[in-house]
Amino acid sequence: MISTDKNTWNLFRGSSYSDPFDYPDLHRRNILRAGAGLASAPLLVGLGGCSPGEQETGRQAAVEETLPPAVLPVEALNDQVSVISGAPGNILVLKTDDGLMLVDSGSAALAPSVRMTIEHHLEGRPVHALINTHYHPDQTGGNALFGEAGAAIHAHEITRQWLSADYYVPFENYWVPALPPPGRPTHTFIEKESLVLGNQSLELGYLLEAHTRGDAYIYLRDANILVVGDVASPLRDPALDWYAGGWLGGRVDAMDDILEVANDDTIIVPAYGPVMTMADFREEHVMMWHLWERCSTLVNKGRSAQDILDAGVMDEIDRKFDDPYKFLYDASKGLWAHYTNFGGNVV
Ligand SMILES: [Zn+2]
């Protein structure tokens, strides 16, 4: 049972903790609610506890919403497969004789730009199929636009559940409404699913508790391109949506699974940032394994996120995170939520 006691949420907010996700749409909804005179007090409290980066995200979302649609960058991976970036993340596009297949649909604010980009660069073909890697609004905000136009929407069953019901965001203390029915997945899977689109065979697979609880990979077998959503994060700090079930143990297991599916020549497409070689992905895999081993050991000994930071764990990896405390906070929350899975002896 979720508590909505104010003191509980103040504990979650803390003095230095900030929202673990850059959710332009969530912030946009907050802004709209405040403008309508609803929930304005929680909004002010929330911003008071935000990091400068988070407030920047809110401003960026407001700007996105007021700007006219624009053509976004497109990178061709081969004759049939392209990646639209800046939506705000990546959208993979597969071109077939029948139409287009998208992996993820970008944010709601940028959906008109995605459609314009398709019209300009991809011959305006209809979008027949859309696959979501997970439920986050920066991957599913354009679902309704393409669903209303007739696209079949595929996702893991848990992602469909998240998108079909209102859900609570603890750090901002408000509910995100369900997507309208045309934006909800129409075809779901549990473990794996095979699809054939045009001359391309696709495999959809579950990545258990890697970033949310409904993450999927999409493997374009013939093109040898593997889309992994936020389970690889070469640009932004890796995010663990612990409130939705994502945690470090799930993430490293999922990265193991991705290595099983891929081969040396596979191209990895993350939710944000440049496409990755397998060498890039293996490097991130090693880093996440190290963080898993160190964080799980220290959390098991009762150490806090601040203790782990003070112990210098984030200095042991090659990469510099933008907000190492935020990562460790989310990692700790996820580890506590799964303590029975890492040998914790907690009563
Ligand atoms: Zn995400």
3D architecture notes:
The chain is an alpha/beta fold and 347 residues long. The chain folds into 2 domains: 61 residues, no CATH class; 205 residues, Metallo-beta-lactamase, Chain A (4-Layer Sandwich). The chain is built from 12 helices and 14 strands. Strands 1-2-3-4-5-6-9 form a 7-stranded mixed β-sheet. Strand 11 and strand 12 form a beta hairpin. Helix 10 crosses helix 12. It is globular and about 55 Å long. The N terminus is likely disordered. The protein binds zinc ion. The site of zinc ion has 5 residues, from loops.
What is this entry, summarized?
With 347 residues, the chain is an alpha/beta fold.
Order of helices and strands: HHHHEEEEHEHHEHEEEEEEEHEHHH
Number of helices: 12
Task: Please compute the radius of gyration using only Cα atoms.
Answer: 20 Å
Task: Tell me what the CATH architecture of the largest domain is.
Answer: 4-Layer Sandwich
Q: Low-confidence spans: pLDDT under 50, at least 5 residues?
A: 1-59
Q: Which structural class fits the helix and strand makeup?
A: alpha/beta
> What is the CATH first-level class name of the largest domain?
Alpha Beta
Q: Tell me what portion of residues adopts beta-strand conformation.
A: 15-25%
Widest beta sheet: strand line-up: 1-2-3-4-5-6-9
Give the count of structural domains: 2
The best one-word shape is globular
Average pLDDT over all residues: 83
Approximately how much helix is present in the residues? 25-40%
The fold-level CATH name of the largest domain is Metallo-beta-lactamase, Chain A
